[in-house]
Amino acid sequence: MTSPTSLAFTLVITGAPYSSQAPQTALSFAQAVIAEGHSIDRVFLYGDGVHLASALSTPPSDETNWSLAWAEFLIEHGIPGVACIASALRRGVLNSEEQQRYERSAANLVTPYQLLGLGEWVESIASTSKTLYFHGEH
């Protein structure tokens, strides 16, 4: 439960795991936010950030699996994870509905992420104290 002086955050991740530090930096920030008694309304993946929601990412055993680390964090703290549907479809990240719709051989969206539109992002930033962006390298 949040106190009257606590902040609510929306986090937007646009950098892909393994090609940018965005997911790692965002997770460290999110852990600190929760530890300080603040809240996170939702985590929104956009652009290459949607790769974080792919179940097909398989890093070597001596590297952190950022998709798994983020999924576990979101589930543990009851934070919604949203992947922009347009960004996800362009990058081959599909849930079962989109798999059927586009007649693809598999779905690969990691639980607890949902594929939703930019309206979710707009709604979240309108209802939170702060929105932070974690961008990939360009």
TrEMBL record:
Please give the name of this protein.
tRNA 2-thiouridine synthesizing protein D
Transferase recorded as keyword: yes
Spell out the subcellular localization from the entry.
Answer: Cytoplasm
User: GO molecular function of the protein, one example?
Assistant: sulfur carrier activity
Entry similarity comment = Belongs to the DsrE/TusD family.
Instruction: Give the record's keywords alphabetically.
Output: Cytoplasm, Transferase
Show the GO cellular component annotation of the record.
sulfurtransferase complex
- Record the organism: Marinobacter zhejiangensis
- Which intervals of the chain form a coiled coil? none
Q: Does the keyword Cytoplasm apply?
A: yes
Q: Which GO terms describe its biological process?
A: tRNA wobble position uridine thiolation
